[in-house]
Amino acid sequence: MNIVCLDLEGVLVPEIWIAFAEASGIPELRRTTRDEPDYGKLMTWRLDILKKHGLGIREIREVISRIDPLPGAKRFLNRLRSVTQTVILSDTFEEFASPLMEKLGRPSIFCNSLIIGEDGAVNGYRLRTEKTKLSTVLAFQSIGYDTIAAGDSYNDLEMIRAGKAGFLFRAPETIISANPDIPAFEKYGDLFDAISRAL
After folding, report:
1. pTM for the structure as a whole
2. pLDDT for the residue 32
3. Potential cystine with 159: which of 99, 117, 133, 189 (Cβ 3.0-4.6 Å)?
């Protein structure tokens, strides 16, 4: 049995933090897991910036409400789900993901959660588990699934390498050049074909 594990941001929807950086006028928030491999360091830095500028979940959700899936993403996901089981593994948060899942047709997603204060401040976050993507892939494998994964960032590499097949999708050149053994694609049709061959 196969299960396909997809990253969310950069693969199916735009990067949420980049959209928020543009809307808030805080360019430092453009930094993502494409740039910083240490997720804990990245999140601590983001939370410090939010606190410094007095921004919270209300402002972030307002931006997320205006984000649409990447062109072709929903069709790709529907096509993929018609031929195999598919889940989204993301280091985003439940509080961010819900409206985006609605726009993608409510696929299954495994992600993290935020610690929100009564005043709406983002005070911290809770990881679903350590090494969330790799841990989930290994859990699927432990119950008899062969995993196929695709993503675009440093935090996707472990799940990509752990399965029977893995792919980079619209990844930055720094990640592609550092991982020349992982097939890299830019178009949904090409990614679909590669996944189909691996099934």
Report:
1. 0.92
2. 87
3. 133
